[in-house]
Amino acid sequence: MSLKDILIARIQQNGPLTVADYMTECLLHPKHGYYTNRDPLGSRGDFTTAPEISQMFGELIGLCIAQCWVDQGRPAQICLAELGPGRGTLMADILRATRQVPGFHDAAEIFLLEASPTLREIQRETLRDYSPKWISSISDLPALPLFLIANEFFDALPIRQFLRDGDGWRERLVGSDGKSLNFGLGTRAAQTLLKDRLTDTNDGDLVECCAAAVPVISSAAERIATCGGMALIVDYGDWRALGDTFQALRDHKHSDPLEEPGKADLTAHVDFEAIARSAQSAGCSFSRLTPQGVYLERLGITARAQNLASSLQGQALEAHILAHRRLTHPNEMGNLFKVLGIYPPSAALPPGLEP
Ligand code: SAH
Q1: How far is residue 88's CA from residue 104's CA, in Å, rounded to a whole number?
Q2: What is the pLDDT of residues 130-154, one digit of tens each?
Q3: Disulfide engineering: 153 pairs with which of 80, 83, 133, 321, CB 3.0-4.6 Å?
Q4: How far is CA 119 from the centre of its chain?
Q5: How far apart are CA 146 and CA 149, in angstroms?
Q6: Which conformational region is residue 185 in: left (phi greater than 0), alpha (psi within -120 to 50 degrees), or beta?
Q7: Residue 52 — φ and ψ, nearest 5°?
């Protein structure tokens, strides 16, 4: 039985699913989930991410994290953790770049939070020299300063969608006619989740909420506020969610999110304001939301790119120049992707970011 048939049967028995429930089943169903049994990354997968485009991304992030560690007095033991590490490429680049930072590797214990058994195996192989440990929630981490990175993790967390209708909201739901899946709307209701959004939205506007992000950020920020450390959240999205950003990607192309559940990557843009406010409520400060291109330029990506270019020729050089452009140019990932820094109010701001 395909995941589509399973979901249609479930909808016929219990009624329509929220977009969040649909997303969870499609991405993480134990047998048919998109992430459960495949490696979706890279040119042969469905999408490519910044660390897979160039080593420069992880190197600069690594040095940014290490600088924060130095600024916070080089704590002797820290957790260096990543959420949704994919193939482990970003963490491997972070660790390679920070080998030169005296004492950093001795202090850092590596932790990974990863839902996919397939990707966990790939991470184990990529990071075999560093003995990482896998956790199932932030609360599993030892009570030490936490230096946390998440690239394209929050866009994979399930969202709910609500359409403004007068002073209330109608939830967008996934239903079925018995053959295919289709979108519908629930009945009009007040939503405590959206009580602040009646002032900045109009009738007919669609708003997305990612409830799953809150506990992750709250517990990470609580740890950072009490023990020290910092978090860097990199993703596509904006300061406040408005409009339908629920999308499916298959084979590097957009596809219909309801067409083949479990076979395409499903994501939504990240509401960075919601993340920043959760971190603030847990006692942390947050940086200004900064475009990825600006952040990487401030950290010196152009100098690093020139340095690497000096030992490259031909196709490898062309690919390297294109990768630099892809990561930073405003028409490529430079503007769409943003960086948010979370840090203790008493600590220095992470390099490359502004208050
Ligand atoms: N950060 C990587 C991979 C991004 S893809 C990179 O930049 O290349 C999203 C990652 O998050 C994958 O590793 C996926 O398996 C993981 N993931 C998605 N939902 C998750 C969840 N609910 N819990 C833990 N990991 C999750």
Answers
A1: 19
A2: 999 999 999 999 999 999 999 999 9
A3: 83
A4: 15
A5: 10
A6: beta
A7: -80, -20
Residue type, 247: Q
Decide whether any atom of ligand 1 lies within 6 Å of the 265 Cβ.
no
Identify which of 170, 134, 180, 159 has the alpha carbon closest to the alpha carbon of residue 24. Answer: 159
State the CATH architecture for 50-157+210-343: 3-Layer(aba) Sandwich (3.40)
> Ligand 1 pocket test: which of 123, 153, 232, 249 has the largest number of ligand atoms within 8 Å of its C-beta?
153
**Structure confidence by residue, pLDDT tens digits, 213-240:** 999 999 999 999 999 999 999 999 999 9
Q: What is the pLDDT of residues 20-53, one digit of tens each?
A: 999 999 999 999 999 987 888 866 788 899 999 9
Q: Nearest to residue 250, comparing CAs of 51, 3, 44?
A: 44
| Amino acid (1-letter code) at residue 89 | T
Average pLDDT of span 70-81: 98
Separation between Cα atoms, residue 292 and residue 46, nearest integer Å: 22
CB 208 near ligand 1, within 6 Å: no
81 beta partners: 111, 148
**Extents of the domains making up the chain:** 3-33+160-208, 50-157+210-343
Q: Residue with the nearest Cα to atom 15 of ligand 1?
A: 116
The answer for 77, left when phi > 0, alpha when psi is -120 to 50, beta otherwise, is: beta
- Measured at the alpha carbon of residue 141, what is the angle toward residues 33 and 230, in degrees to the nearest 5? 95
Task: Pick the residue whose CA is nearest to atom 23 on ligand 1.
Answer: 115
